[in-house]
Amino acid sequence: MPYRLFYADGSAAMGVRVILEEVGETYELIETEIGAGMPRAPELLAVNPNGWVPVLLWEHGAIYECGAIVTFLCDRYPEFRLAPAANDTDRGVFLQWLFFFSSSLQTAYQMTYHTDRFCESTADHDSVQHRSGRRLHELWQVVDNAIGNREWMLGQKFSAADIYLFMLTTCYCGSTELSTNAVPS
Length: 185
Ligand SMILES: N[C@@H](CCC(=O)N[C@@H](CS)C(=O)NCC(=O)O)C(=O)O
Hints:
The protein is built from 6 helices and 4 strands. The chain is α+β, with helices and mostly antiparallel strands. The chain has 2 domains: 3-80, Glutaredoxin (3-Layer(aba) Sandwich); 91-182, Glutathione S-transferase Yfyf (Class Pi), Chain A, domain 2 (Up-down Bundle). The longest helix is centred in the middle third of the chain and has 23 residues, at 91-113. Glutathione is lined by residues 11-12, 34, 51-53, 64-67, 102, 106, 110, 114, 171, 173-174.
């Protein structure tokens, strides 16, 4: 059975799509709506109660969370060397970036694009949104400092962490504005 991917243009699902392309697997995109305030498709909610993309369907069920899907695919196709193997000295740092991207940066993007979710009342909205912009700036600075003069996140070695980073720097999570616009200079 080919993979099926819950997908929205400009979303985090693009990173998973790139990996499916890299490993040359056939897949079907299930285009879905993720805009703020828009209802989520029941088919999406059935496999991810959070209503987020990506969700990857494969012959044994559904997987959500970018970091999990990326690790799953890299480990499933080790011949493409998209991730350090479990006993490789770079494995820990590879996982560190995936978890950091997912838990810190993507959460800050959700605060920016789905601000209401983080507010008790509408009076909090502007304050939370402003703080999320500054938070993005702080978090991107951490990534920027870590990269320094390196070519890739792991130094000389290209990996799926770079694909994930490419996705994060270009996705806009269903908003009509590019994500870079959310980061104050
Ligand atoms: N932690 C999740 C975050 C995924 C996420 O934020 N996806 C965005 C698209 S870039 C989304 O579906 N947003 C819709 C929403 O938050 O309701 C992951 O790593 O998969």
